């Protein structure tokens, strides 16, 4: 089964890489780089030859992501439960949250940059903003899908509020909650990296923008591949946590 999935994927990647190589070789070498030039650039990047301070920038980006996501989880869970457990508040503010979530996120960044500056704070705020809405809406939807009759029965048998939450509410809403947490993590990562690209003095996104501005196209593509690997690694960890949580439920 795994072979039947891996082989077609490898074939698609091989065809795309071959098409990329052929197309790039026939175009301006300053702007278009084939994989045969990207791989050596990636090797120099990993060896810290082209960007000796890559670990410091990468660690800064990871730290911003962790802080932004932690804030998004704390704020999203608290807001979602506050609106879900109080139906009156939910009816008033849930449509407003949905409308704000539908606004293209990039329009918020100039205001955040003016408010927090070019440092890490604006990137954390942008990552928090992108992760907050899906987590809040997922918690709200999860609370609403809990069967109230099960809660009533549990309370009738003398279950304490903590027991009701852990044994009745949490298993019922866990699928929706884990999906929202995973989506919030992905968007927090995107928010931080995009914020660094749009305006920053350090970080992985800053290096990407720096290489692009100097037309170091091979280094630019190599840095983008590093960012892609970072995103896939974080999403892989999130997917593993989601599978374990659903198995527990």
Can you tell me about this structure?
The chain has helices at 2-25, 35-46, 54-85, 87-102, 109-116, 120-144, 148-156, 161-198, 204-213, 217-248. Helix 2 packs across helix 10. It is mostly helical.
Observed structural traits:
249 residues; mainly alpha; elongated; MetI-like fold
The unreliable regions are: none
What's the story with the biggest beta sheet? Answer: none
For the residues shown, what is the average pLDDT?
A: 82
The CATH class name reads Mainly Alpha
Q: Any idea of the CATH topology?
A: MetI-like fold
**Secondary structural class:** mainly alpha
Strand content: under 5%
How helical, in percent, are the residues?
Answer: over 70%
- Shape call: elongated
Kindly state the number of beta strands: 0
Tally of helical segments? 10
CA distance, first residue to last residue: 27 Å
CATH architecture grouping: Orthogonal Bundle
Radius of gyration: 22 Å
Order of helices and strands: HHHHHHHHHH
Write down the domain tally.
Answer: 1
Short description:
With 249 residues, this protein is mainly alpha-helical. Helix content is 83%, strand content 0%.
Task: Give the topology, please.
Blueprint (H helix, E strand, L loop, with lengths): L1 H24 L9 H12 L7 H32 L1 H16 L6 H8 L3 H25 L3 H9 L4 H38 L5 H10 L3 H32 L1
